Amino acid sequence: MDAESLLLSLELASGSGQGLSPDRRASLLTSLLLVKRDYRYSRVLFWGRILGLVTDYYIAQGLIEDQLAPRKTLYSLNCMEWSLLPPATEEMVEQTSVVKGRFMGDPSHEYEHVDLQKVNDGDKVFEEEIVVRIKEETRLVSIIDQIDKAVAVIPRGALFKTPFGPVHVNRTFEGLSMSEAKKLSSYFHFREPVELKNKTLLEKADLDPSLDFMDSLENDIPKGSWSIQMERGNALVVLRSLLWPGLTFYHTPGTKNCGYIYVGTGEKNIDLPFML
Amino acid sequence: MEDSTAQKQEKENQESGEEERPWGEITAASSQDFKSGLSEPLESEQGPETEPYSRSSPPGSPQSRDSAPLGDLTGPGASSPPSPPEEPSSTPPLALSGQGLEAPRQTHPNHSVIPEAETPHSDHLKQSSDIGELTHLTCQSTGNAFPQFQQTNGHLYEPRDVSCSNSKQKELRFDIFQEEDSNSNYDLDEAEPETAPSVLETAIQNAKAYLLKTSSQSGLNLYDHLSNMLTKILDERPENAVDIIENISQDVKMAHFSKKLDTLQNENEMLPTYEIAEKQKALFLQGHLEGADQELEDEIAGNSLPNVMESAFYFEQAGVSLGTDETYRVFLALKQLTDTHPIQRCRFWGKILGLEMNYIVAEAELRDGEDEEEAEEEDVTEERDNEDSEGEEDDELPRSFYKAPQAIPKEESRTGANKYVYFVCNEPGRPWVKLPSVTPAQIVIARQIKKFFTGRLGTPIISYPPFPGDESNYLRAQIARISAGTHVSPLGFYQFSEEEGEEEEEVEGGRDSFEENPDFEGIQVVDLVESLSNWVHHVQHILPQGRCNWFNPIQKSEEEEEDDDEEKEEKEEFDYIEQEVGPPLLTPISEDLEIQSIPPWTTRLCSNLIPQYAIAVLRSNLWPGAYAFCNGKKFENLYIGWGHKYSPESYTPPVPPPVCQEYPSGPELTEMDDPSVEEEQAFRAAQEAAVPPAEENEDTDEDEEDYD
């Protein structure tokens, strides 16, 4: 959700129960403004909150003019002092995939993972235990990256691609119409397209190259990994990710108000097929 | 490239300038032919077909007519750019079409193409239907590729590749051209099927289907529109068609008469919005309505309604809230509930998220008006008994030994897991639905499954251990589990009630009723945050059996046992099933079990900035979404979430039940061999020796022989 319209956004996204206490709101409004100035972002998003066992991580993201460019991620424990996280790499994701369970809330906490590795010593093959230490900060980076890639959502038309390549915020976006708002196909993944190239010519024929340059949600695997609800008597669309429970996307049809927030434990729901 | 070829062409044109004249005449004649053809009502397709010629003729043929020598020299090659692109592209089919045509071209490689290409092709076009239209359209679009055509006359498909790479649009059009052509002159160009793979054909089909797609707004499609446009142009023959093409397009569209479809129903896109608003209006109006009958209000609403807004304020401090307006709507809905039902005490339990709709859950204690649901459910159990008795009808064959494990009866209302009654609604303003009371079997099964709620109470729950009931029962079971796990209060707020407590102790050593401590002094918030032992459970623990109070399933079944072996087995089992005991009521939560090294609770102070006015916030890690706050004197519990328990491991479906062992092979199952002849003879000998009369034996012999 945009840092500037934080209060309205929080009110809209509150259907899932996760909000911010008044002191957190006030400090976010103050500190995100400063973040925007200091890091020279054109737009700052309040990304959400990862619940730790001791303390919570508050996450913000800074965007430059090109909306699809790699985003900078910042975290804070008290909503005032923000620290920049390093960009996520493939290695990190692979490395932290062995860690399960909840976040602690301490960035310097180290998870220990015992890895069994086969060692060839001459003719003998024996297994050796290798203790891998993984910092929680690394895990935080990779989880945020995974969530961003998997379930960050933007309605169709909110961004547009300029002829020169960069993607900008569409100032003429008037919100989705009521019939569009009920369909998953009007929502896009807020990331570089992955699946778009695999579409057939007929599917592509309808696409508007300046608007349809991202993957739509409707082809997500497994089918049914989104819950789409009209709340307040159709006045508000709420999308909840079931794959990453805690991610809530809200949009008021007919207006520009839209955004997403993640409040959760930072764990993927791998039981999804059993639960549907 | 183009320049060089153009020059080359010019040269050749000059060399054979005389030959140009007939061409001019021919084209003029042919175009006249077409004009006359147009007047005939025969084929409307002819209009589009002739279109390219009429376009090419103004630059080409009039000049040749007016000033013959000049036009001869420069006309086709240099001064009329639109014409050359057409001609060569129309030649390729011809190149393969007839050898008679091919021969003269070889003699006059370049410019002879021009006349010959035009005339036969037009003939051919007449035969083929509206293909010609398309071919020429595409030809013009691929004008850039002209020089390549010239050079690579023999290789038909190379220029296509070039033009394909130019742009996708061209590729599309060209594909159409290619396909249409191949359909019409299929026998002529044999190379076509080889080089056109099926992928390409499907792409063409796709493109054509796309062109034929009808717009929902105007009811037109692009394919018809283009052909209408071209018909119009050919009908009217405007001087500068290319300049006013936009206007023509607009005119054609305007001329298209379309009536707005009568949809029989009014467009009610926003209807649900109004509907819920109408229902919620009733919530806001009910205050006035109640003013009428004061007695009822005094009687019922005395203290049954909780102060939702106050606790919502504290929860908001804790960072848990539904939003101010929704909370107030819930508040009003609770008021509606207490007004319409005989409720002694009511509480906002929380919200359970669903896939399509959510549930707002209210926890209530009824006054005296208990309902009749239990009777119905008893009927159900009776039916089950009947089913069992039906099995007893035929005594001759052995009946199934298997008896379903004895159903554990559910707890009485107002006790155990059924202490409270729960009402749910999907949205504030919609009617409240009372959930049925929970049975132990439902709780036991609910512990083994993990399903999302859909938001419709009647949805069947399809799961591996079959769940006895629909979503309302599952919801009720989850509510019972969450309440038992996460409803906590600060130490000292509740105490055991003295009179009842003693009675309970006699039964099972644990007490299950409590009352508010009138002498509760409050508790320091800091203590609440620092020590988990200052929080206690005030809802009974649910045993693995699925009940809060132990029910002994053994006593009745013992009488029926007859065989000694079975009795022994049963007794062993009985020894194994000892009374399940859970933590008693008002146990501190510091004794809760850890979830694999994860503490089950997290406590925090809601604000570190102003600690003196902060409240203690408790968050359950076992049931994500369960919160409790206490500001020293007041406390409240709230659950907002999906209704699932947390586990660090992924959900594992329960293992299938063990396969029943077959009956052990023993003397009851095995049979002796048939009696042999020797044995029988020995037997007879023995009998004869014993009993002199032999008549009976003979009879038996005969019988035995029959059996052998």
UniProtKB/TrEMBL annotation, chain A:
It is found in: Cell projection, Kinocilium; Cytoplasm, Cytoskeleton, Flagellum axoneme. Keywords: Cell projection, Cilium, Cilium biogenesis/degradation, Cytoplasm, Cytoskeleton, Flagellum. GO terms for biological process: axoneme assembly; cilium movement involved in cell motility; motile cilium assembly. The keyword Nucleotidyltransferase does not apply. InterPro entries: RSP9. One of its GO terms (cellular component) is kinocilium. Belongs to the flagellar radial spoke RSP9 family. This is Radial spoke head protein 9 homolog. The lineage of its organism: Eukaryota, Metazoa, Chordata, Craniata, Vertebrata. The gene is RSPH9.
UniProtKB/TrEMBL annotation, chain B:
InterPro entries: Radial_spoke. One of its GO terms (biological process) is axoneme assembly. Residues 1-126, 365-408, 661-708 are annotated as: Disordered. Residues 53-67, 683-694 have a biased composition (Low complexity). Its main location: cytoplasm. Residues 8-23 have a biased composition (Basic and acidic residues). It is found in: Cytoplasm, Cytoskeleton, Cilium axoneme. The keyword Kinase does not apply. GO terms for cellular component: radial spoke. Keywords: Cell projection, Cilium, Cytoplasm, Cytoskeleton. It comes from the Eukaryota. It holds the Pfam family Radial_spoke. Residues 79-91 have a biased composition (Pro residues). Residues 368-396, 670-680, 695-708 have a biased composition (Acidic residues). PANTHER family: RADIAL SPOKE HEAD PROTEIN 4 HOMOLOG A, RADIAL SPOKEHEAD-RELATED. This is Radial spoke head component 4A. It comes from Phyllostomus discolor.
